[in-house]
Amino acid sequence: RKRAEKNSMKTRIWTGVVGLPLLIAIMYLGGFVLVIGVSALAFFGMIEYTRAINRMMQPKINRILMLALAAMLMITIKLDYYFLMPVLLVSFIVIFCYEILSGNVEIQRGSATLMGLIYVPVMFGHLFLFETVNKGAYYMWLIFVIAFTTDTAAYFIGKSIGNRKIAPLISPKKTIAGSVGGVIVAALCTILYGTILSSYFSFVLPWYLYLVVGVFGSIAGQCGDLTASMIKRKAKIKDFGTILPGHGGILDRFDSILFIIPLIYIFAKLTIGIA
């Protein structure tokens, strides 16, 4: 077992060695590269989500309909965010018209379809919006600072001193100590990130704003992680996919990030006049 865990850790590290520079390049280059990168994440994320939901649902979600609506939502976010809500409402109408015409008398499939559209393409699509914000790249990197520091701190602190579980029915390995430790470390690292921005990049925000967004961002990220775990446990799967060796699927790696993205976008919109 220890040997298997060691090999798994090596695989995770090598995936990170290859994947992290690629992620940095996509975020740094922006523009068309960002569109392609984020669209690929959303596409594979939708495939994974639909596959997981279809394991526990009868009748199954129509994958083509799901992908078509997801593409429509992402195009809307990219071209004009103002129309996102109307398009989302149209998607709602299309979904339940499809349910009625298919003779389905339950609401579970339609509800799961609508959840998937918000959970994956709408969340991922918000990454496009940081290019519309002045100095949006600094805010976008904040997403990953919070997510990665929370995950890392929660893992090591929980493994070292954590005993009491935070949600044993959803994720038996996650502890209260790890969760609290993740929030504290993420908040401190967010303040450090803000200090670096103010010292070297002339991007200045009050330290207490970084503290607040670090705390709430970390909590949101952990909720995103547990949401993904909830879906996997219900679907009786270990991972959403295998596209990222050692990590699983796109939704396994970006589960916490998805919940942080819109939060940081709101933070950017509220503070852009200050920086």
Shape: globular
How would you spell out the order of helices and strands? HHHHHHHHHH
Q: How much is the average pLDDT? A: 89
Strand content: under 5%
Structural class: mainly alpha
Count every helix, treating DSSP H or I runs of 4 or more residues as helices: 10
> How far do the termini sit from each other?
50 Å
Summarize the structure.
With 275 residues, this protein is mainly alpha-helical. It is 75% helix and 0% strand.
In words, what does this structure look like?
With about 280 residues, the protein is an all-alpha fold. It has ten helices and no strands. The protein has helices at about 1-30, 30-55, 65-80, 85-100, 110-125, 135-160, 175-200, 205-235, 250-255, 255-270. α6 packs across α10, α7 crosses α8 (about 205-235) and α8 (about 205-235) packs antiparallel against α10. The longest helix has 29 residues, at about 205-235. The relative contact order is 0.13. The mean pLDDT is about 90.
Give the SSE layout.
Layout: H1 2-29, H2 31-54, H3 63-79, H4 84-101, H5 108-125, H6 136-161, H7 176-200, H8 207-235, H9 250-253, H10 255-271
